[in-house]
Amino acid sequence: MVSFLIIDDHPLFREALGNAVRMTHPDAQIFEAMSIERALQVLSVNAGIDLALLDLSLPDATGFSGFLRLRENYPRLPVAIVSNDEDRQVIREALTLGAAGYLPKSTSKSELALAIELVLSGSVAVPKGFAPSSGVTDTNATEALRMRLQELTPQQLRVLGLIRGGLQNKQIATELKLAESTVKAHVTEILRKLKLFSRNKAIIELGRLNLPVAKNRSKLKA
Question: What are the structural domains of the chain?
Fold first, then answer.
């Protein structure tokens, strides 16, 4: 029996994904989780799950932080991302990080079912019309970002590292013993210097540089 883990905080979409799975695997065993923490709990007691279907937007994950936590804890688990974000750069980053596929939520149920079958067969599923971008363009953009990182202060780099680790402003404030308003000011200035419009975009772009992700010390002590 094939088993799946659907990780999405919207009940209706979890149901829709479950229905897509059952189009080709009517007897499939389907587990559900509304957060990365819950997904890790499910995986800890259910060995042999064949495929995880992951939404990037979750209460306890930002950008690819949830995906990276799954890969860190269960490196052999195939994880396909199912997301509303159809930005080609986001898709490229997901595939670079090792996603088994990238399925837009706008995809029809029948197309989702076919894409899931493709992933289970060992292939990588991508949206229609998707093609890798020019390596030269990617390299130039990466080097430009690397140069802009040098403009950040040591404290801004610490804040940025925790953003990449999936922490929200309140958690960063606790971690660095700062006022939350100070963290917000740092985040604004970081995005300005890096010429990025959101913290999610920062996570995606910095993922291209293969920089280490900061650990949450409070969690390590727990």
Answer: 3-120 (3.40.50.2300), 135-221 (1.10.10.10)
